[in-house]
Amino acid sequence: MQVQEVSVNELRAALEDGRPLTVLDVRPTAQRAEWSIPDSRHVDAYDELWRGESASLCAAAEQLPRDRPVIAVCAMGRTSLIAAEILQQLGFDAYSLSGGMTAWSEAWNTAEVALPGAVPVTVVQVRRTGKGCLSYVVGSKDEAVVIDPSVDAGVYLQLAADHGWRIVAVLDTHVHADHVSRARGLAQQARAALYLPAQNRVSYEFHALADGAKLSFGGASLRALLTPGHTSESMCYVVNDQAIFTGDTLFLQSVGRPDLVAPGDQPARRAHMLFHSLKDRLAGLPGSTLVFPCHTSEPIPFNGVAHGAPLDRVLPAIPLLALDEDPFVAAVLQRIPPTPPNHIQIVRINEGKSAMPADMRPLEAGANRCAVSR
Ligand SMILES: [Fe+2]
Predict the structure, then answer these.
(1) Are 73 and 12 in contact (CB under 8 A)?
(2) CA 82–ligand 1 middle distance (angstroms)
(3) Which of 56, 104, 232, 263 has the fewest CB atoms within 10 Å distance of its CB?
(4) What pTM did the predictor assign?
(5) How many CA atoms does the CB half-sphere of 162 hold within 13 Å?
(6) Average per-residue pLDDT in the chain?
(7) Residues 299-323: pLDDT tens digits?
């Protein structure tokens, strides 16, 4: 019997719909520790399967429910074909995830938050669960803006259409280093204006936002707040004084790393800037402001629960923010994680200095590493 493959889109839709299935990850333990599919099971069967052995897989299979399909997953979608064939022989309705975890990098799910007010605003959080990137469609009346788009433009266009919104503006919070920004392509397809923080890094046309600049959409307003540190041009966007989209400046459990594409003594200078952005600018906002960052360091479950929290819960939960300036800078510089793979190439694409590849998966595979370690 030939093993059938399921696509990333089919699997992500099935998980978002809550259909009963088992995802069985057969990769080596070290690879799984880096990134995995939420609620998946694991058996380290990779070496055995390539040796033609199946003892570990068969033992794991005994623990699997038999009343639902099993989707085998590996790094590239080849070992999982072998695993699925064995599972079929054991009587399971088994499939292989086409392209494996490299393809899963593009999987996403959504959650929604309603911001109450005289003119209600809806925030749709688009979570690239396969990588940890968070982006947002923020709608009011019949218009929406998109912030930090990181999945295919069609996803945002469809979400906007589903809500009766026209996308009028697409914004990035900074020049990203861990994923290829989809902002340019989305702005073109939506015939919307592209806004970036004012800077001279990017070589294509955009509307430059200065500190304090305001945009209106539907009945809502968005204000740009310059918060340098993660990058020198990093901005946060405040919507209706109720929500702040913090890019890679502030996460729910950490702060942005200051070192990417920053030679010489720039990381230290940027860490000082980050301290002041966090302490002088963000900490001065109302505590009830909901923080919506651009990344998480863990795969996001298909649970429809938004990854966000009020500022007065986020800031006290980050021990680094209890430090004075010099100890903060020293601690940030000590906790910088390994540099993300391909980040220089990704930055060049996002600056418009290299062409956008047709297939971004090889460039973007793997976890994001934009935060300072906790
Ligand atoms: Fe970033």
Answers:
(1) no
(2) 38
(3) 263
(4) 0.94
(5) 11
(6) 95
(7) 899 999 999 999 999 999 999 999 9
Cα–ligand 1 centroid distance for 175 (angstroms): 7
Q: How far is the CA of 333 from the centre of ligand 1 (A)?
A: 16
Rounded distance between C-alpha atoms, residue 370 and residue 336, angstroms: 9
Whole-number Å distance between alpha carbons of 51 and 123: 49
Assign residue 117 a region: left if phi > 0, alpha if psi is -120 to 50, beta otherwise? left
What tens digit of pLDDT does each residue of 116-162 get?
A: 888 999 999 999 998 899 999 999 999 999 999 999 999 999 999 99
Q: How many angstroms separate the alpha carbon of residue 176 from the centre of ligand 1? A: 5
Whether residue 270 is predicted with pLDDT greater than 80 in this model: the reply is yes
Question: Which region, left, alpha or beta, applies to residue 218 given φ > 0 means left and ψ of -120 to 50 means alpha?
Answer: left
Ligand 1 center to residue 273 CA distance, Å?
A: 15
Q: Which helix (H) or strand (E) holds 158?
A: helix 153-163
Tell me the percentage of the chain whose pLDDT exceeds 90. Answer: 87
Distance CA 228, CA 179 (A): 19
